């Protein structure tokens, strides 16, 4: 089969399959990485010489094989990115593309308005035999054509009929793209740039499905609405921008302008971290690629100076209002970069952006006539307690005093750990985020810092800084409006955390009404969806009213896209992912359950309310902490941990109803033994031990297990 593939490659003179490769493999690893490829011995020898001079000499400084592999991967990816920047500028050879377009039109006879985006030489596998030919990616179809030794293969698949699209590896194919449509599997391999090809296929498949479900967005987007405007270069840059905004939790409007491979000096570790500096209109971001999990976000509104550092190390130094300086080195074209950044900073230092994000608690003073916000005052963090907690101190019984003291002591120790972190790694939007930050989040954020850190990790702090006065205007405009959304909001207001004292008065209910109505006014496409009331209630316990609004924006529009609309497509997609993860990680459960839709029906509320609707409030907020730091991954992991914890009992269940009872009893038994909240607010502690045969499970242990 492979011989036939080679024969096909020889017969098709235009195919570009490289016969020479350089592989990287450390002695204790079974995996090798493809580092370079070449079409001739001379070309591959050039690559080898370059590696000897630029990479191999450096490897002796690393202690472990993992560090070596990370460094080599980072270096090669950096080169590819630099090379890729050039290819963005010059589109494919027009003459060659015209030739490909004529072939495409002649072979497939698709409608005239079908726009060819790009095409690649590759192999299509029929059983164990590869057929060399051409893969064509157009706005609505994936097409393949091969005509060799008298045999013709023609394949056309509509993007919206694809049920699975993934990069895979198996014994025969080291790297291939697997496409499943109407239950039929198709494999394509031998691409020169498989990641680039896969990225474009993913984009086109996503757009095709979104066009079915989200016509309004497409009609408002000139590029997507008119397929003739879709280009390979446009799709690639859009995909990179989307990945960039999602990774750093930046406003959707940010587009990735430049990427520079470099090193960032990490003062608390006394070493340089190797990674990439990513620059957009309003942000300079860095993410490590050496396994140190270090990232930094520097909004240009915070920058007070950009300077050239030591020319020998090609250094760039960036100073911020928080009196922190970030030192980057080994930056290619560093002098040009300094000049560009200086221009950008002078353009962004307009008065509207001046806002102290170092302590985000002080940033919402201009909320609607301070609106007597009640629960918004719960989020004031200057006294290291939420006001709701203070107001409820009187409900403690004398015998609880000792218990309270130990919990308060633990809470103070948690705060102390965070304060040490802030001293070491910075405080506010430009802090260093590392593995240590994540470890502290997993332990549970202290009550006094929760609102501030939610704003920071969700990126809501940036939306708020860029839109001063926006929430006040929305509240005024939406006041008194009467729509289907406002009717639904009114109906659900008193069902939102009804047992919590904060929502047993008009003050709390009014704040909740204003936030939900303002959001429905801002985004009529979503308007209001059940579950938003529960989520917003919890946000209001820890954040001021305006902050809670921007947190809701971050959740609905960035972190959980398409969750809160009429079709809840986003939640259904993530549930399908969850089912797939159950098959992989908990196969015993999959074998036992006759119908996998059980998991979807039982877990929908976990996804829509981030476990708030099923867990006691004092435990649920720890889950929300992890969600704002890690995104939906935290919810998927916790879902798997819950099922694994209850595996034995679930395997003995005879029907779905019994399984639901098992899970409900488990959730009732989850406690937060370190929570400083008073008993009147806590839900878990009010349950008598006789009510459940489940031993108590601490939420911190459960979250830690889900991470491990």
TrEMBL record:
GO cellular component: cytosol
Pfam families: GRAM (PF02893), RabGAP-TBC (PF00566)
Annotated Rab-GAP TBC domain residues: 444-631
Gene Ontology MF term list: GTPase activator activity
Any one GO biological process: glomerular filtration
Species this protein is from: Zapornia atra
Bias (Polar residues) ranges: 352-366
InterPro entries, A to Z: GRAM, PH-like_dom_sf, Rab-GAP-TBC_dom, Rab-GAP_TBC_sf, TBC1D8B_PH-GRAM1, TBC1D8B_PH-GRAM2
Keyword line: Cytoplasm, GTPase activation, Repeat
This protein's name: TBC1 domain family member 8B
Annotated localization: Cytoplasm, Cytosol
Span of the signal peptide: none
Chief site of localization: cytoplasm
Region span, Disordered: 352-384, 674-696
